[in-house]
Write the structure tokens for this entry.
Amino acid sequence: MIRAVLFDMDGVLYDSMPYHVRAWHETILSLGINSDPDDYYLYEGLTGSFTIDILFNRAYGRDATDKEKMWIYEQKSRRFEELSDYITLMPGACEVLSAVKKLGRQIVVVTGSGQQTLFKKLEKDFPETFKKELLVTAYDVTHGKPDPEPYLLGLKKAKVAANEAIVVENAPFGVQSAVEAKIFTIGVNTGPLPSCVLSEFGAALTFQSMVDLAKNIETIIETTNTT
Ligand code: CA
């Protein structure tokens, strides 16, 4: 039986990825490095440091120094902060969460985000949906996605086994993290990548939007055999 549903946040609960992408692209461009905005959807879920190394290796054939990384990540975060007022809830997210709540299953959020005010924001946007003790953020883990650690910690916090949970993810490396934690993973393709990418990374099911998932989530929870 499915006792918990673990949700990624950016690109699943919030339509925030376009702003992360814009903040990355503008910051990197200010250094004279051109990048393809769509690539950031592939890197989604990786740490800032890892993303910067990929971009530096492509442009200069070397990793970035710690000083460069710190400066770039600070610029990116500042730009994202400026844009964050424009972020809206992902269409369909409320309906998916309501269905899980109605069925009485636990709702866990597993995000690489490290915003201090995250829980307050979640509570304001989705009232009476989340519990603080069922939130996994960047502060809780040593290794971010695609390592399975964030999702393993999510299972631990919810006190459920891997085969008693479902993950909802939008990013290839997020899917990989959940699949390596041995959890049944639903890919929701809310960005510009071809859908097959999520199944290639191990998603058991793929939907084109959270609206589509909302129409199916009850059946999935009640009928999926994960053993
Ligand atoms: Ca995501």
Notes: The chain is about 45% helix and 10% strand.
